Amino acid sequence: MPVAYLERMNPLLINDVSATRTVRAAVVQSAPVLFDTPRTLDKLADLTADAARKKAELVVFPEAFVGGYPKGHDFGVSLGVRTPEGRDEFRRYFECAIEVPGPATEMIGSVAKNHGIHLVVGVIERKGGTLYCSALTFGPDGSLLGTHRKLMPTALERVIWGTGDGATLPVVDTPLGKVGAVICWENYMPLLRTAMYAKGVELYCAITVDDRETWVPTVRHIALEGRCFVLSACQVLQRTDLPPGYPTGRFPVDQEWLIRGGSCIVGPLGQLLAGPVYGDEAVLVADLDRADLVRAKFDFDVVGHYARPDVFRLTVNESAVKSVTFTTAPEQVGVSHGSASNSLTLLEMAGHFAVCKLPPGSAVPAWATAGDVFNLSRTTDELSVVCRQELVPEGIHCERGWQCLRVAGAMPFTLVGVLASLTAPIARAGIGVFAFSTFDTDYLLVKAERFPEAVAALRAAEHTVELLST
């Protein structure tokens, strides 16, 4: 049967060439410059350039690389007691954290764009008065593709870091494969791992500061369990890296390496492809044969043919959790049983989108389905494609510069009036909107220059809008 006919019948029947390609990945084992974020960002740029010279397409940095991991510091905390000195040390640490998005993420994005690579970077994120240990994923165009906040800080980390929620568990679909990040001891949470496997993670980035002997067996187990590549980047830290006055009383006096590393790259059958390396700064590189992902799942797919959903099931709450929600008395507009309530929650999606028009008989091009979010509509008049704008080749008839909002949660088909309750306030503000729907939910696209006005209109209509920058 001719390939062209197969494409017209069902483009998904055509083999995905990227499924068999080789990806060169790098993990960075290095020390940040503690309490000096600008110098750390300069170091990140230099290390990324080093990895790019080695032809890496994906570069992974350790947990808390930007912002730092102040190992051994107690910030003056004991049970029931805090000290003025500890509060001032926290202030110093707080000032080294970064806003997401913000100037630091713009700089990291520019590094990714300059080298045309994907970056995963562990950062200390600042929002309001709270710090989060986060992992940021950047695309080769410099865009921030995803943010994951550590769900559960460990031990004293809970004094200085807040907890993430299910709204920041992204697995990003990229031309290299599906990329996800899990931070340090989150990797010991079996339900979190299962959620990542269910999202199809292929390039599992396990960023950490855990340098114990037990860490490498952990990430080898994850690779074998999830049948995925695991890229584990760990910090190193020498006593000579510490700034003056840093407390060292909890370390043995003869201990030079306070964090000794152990970074490695593991294949989907648990085999070591690079590392581990201890007691040195390094950029480890390995070539990942994506065909190994399928070979590995031949006899074990933990969320597929080896699962027993009739016995065990996992439910993941991906809603953003807010401690305070402001409401006003809603207008009574005749909402009846089975209708959308006056208040829905919308989540901003990272990046910008394009709406494209192709001739009606066109085969679905590979770029149209390469991203993590896309929508295809075929009629006798056209093939319409919505996808991330950086994937659209030059010369395609399209409108770029759309920002996207997703309605949080899953809505039953019996719920009516959802789109009307969202598009009406935007229309009253004189703003154009492009919408598409999936089985579970709805997506709204608004041109970037009108996006703030659309957000204001939705909030004025009593909807909650969660922005990446707030």
From TrEMBL:
UniProt-recorded Gene Ontology molecular function terms: nitrilase activity
Keyword annotations from UniProtKB, A to Z: Hydrolase
Keyword Hydrolase: yes
Entry similarity comment: Belongs to the carbon-nitrogen hydrolase superfamily. Nitrilase family.
Organism: Gemmata massiliana
Residue ranges annotated for the CN hydrolase domain, each copy included: 23-290
Top-level taxon in the UniProt lineage: Bacteria
A matching Pfam family: A9CJY8-like_N
Gene3D superfamilies (UniProt xref): Carbon-nitrogen hydrolase, VC0802-like
The protein's name in its UniProt record: CN hydrolase domain-containing protein
Signal peptide residues on this chain, from the entry's feature table: none
